[in-house]
Amino acid sequence: MKARKLLMIPGPIEFEPAILQAMAIPTTSHVAPNFIETFGNSLELMRTVWKAPKGQPFIIAGTGTLAMDMAAANLIEQGDNVLVISSGYFGQRYKDILDRSGANTTLLEAPLGENTPLETIEAALKTKSYKALTLTQVDTSTGILIDPKPIAELAKKYDVLTIVDGVCSVAAEELNQDEWGLDVVLTASQKAVGVPPGLALLMVSEKAMNVWKNRKTAVPNYYADWSNWLPVMQAYEDRRPSYFGTPAVNLVVALETSLKIICKEGMDKRVKRHLDLAKAFRAAITALNLKTLPTTALAANTLTAIYYPEGIDGAAFNAKMNDNDIIIAGGLLPDIKATYFRIGHMGSVSANDLMAVLGALERTLAQLGHAFEIGKGLQTFQTEILKLNP
Ligand SMILES: *Cc1c(COP(=O)(O)O)cnc(C)c1O
After folding, report:
1. Ligand 1 pocket mutation pick from 9, 96, 167 by most atoms within 8 angstroms of CB
2. pTM of the full structure
3. Any idea which positions bind substrate (predicted)?
4. Which residue range is the domain that position 298 belongs to?
5. 81 with 114: CB under 8 angstroms?
6. Distance in Å, CA 65 to ligand 1 centroid
7. What is the pLDDT of residues 224-242, one digit of tens each?
């Protein structure tokens, strides 16, 4: 029955059949005319999804971490000051990456379940001259959403580049890269973009490309260096053959398929679908007497982080959910890893998928002796969804 299980972790997610079928085509040459067209289309479609008509897109074989590494390697030079705004595990990862690129980093870690107040960010920006700041739009370890817009306004005021880790948000949360003045917004294929793991995707502003062009020192990492990749991206957009490193041909074919599906739905509608589903799902979770990890913080629309109820063993809970055909993720934040679990709801996720999750969740909780009214989560979800979509 493996094939009937729903993969509801925060990436990789359930992929559309058309996207998986696109992966199965005979692999063509990376300079075949039809593949050049596919690659060029994908770059153009990225601008629509990111709302970045003036951005420079990059499609690189690798994971989200490579995308983070690439932004750091190309924009940061030895001794540059970088402010890391963290709301969980991936903020800490960005600090580690930046430290490795020679940056002088300052970490602003929000208290658990909260966002760092704008005043705290501004106070930090006043203390020294920063080259860049980073933020995680959705930290997948905590399910916390950061609104990049007001932070980008502060960054502009202090002339600081804004780098957004959008691995768990791009193509699902509201994003307006050009209008908000974000310099890099990066992601990976396996989350809300809806393509199997293996592609690092970045969109870079004109301003950031100029900062990179005016570097005093060479980019220390050969594979990450935009000098090698920019001509390839430009060639594909001009529909010319080019080569630096062999692209992940089948993944790029799948990416074009997915970006077309996303653009057909339309970003505004897609964001609203994620918002409605997340809102109804959180209401159902509360109705089941469960607590979510974000307290005063904004809650993400791509996943929900939920504490195990008092007295219920996490491993037993996850195993029972699996027996009930829903695959969920455990905790990720080292200090509290064993106390909570995460459910992803992004990409092509539907109300029906979340009804299946809630059904399994109710059965699991009942089997493990949690006190709640059976059917209350499902009923709350239905009521909320109907309220949002009358
Ligand atoms: C998943 C994730 C990453 C890392 O992506 P990989 O593809 O696993 O390297 C980075 N940041 C965030 C916010 C993520 O959700």
Report:
1. 167
2. 0.98
3. 342
4. 267-388
5. no
6. 6
7. 999 999 999 999 999 999 9
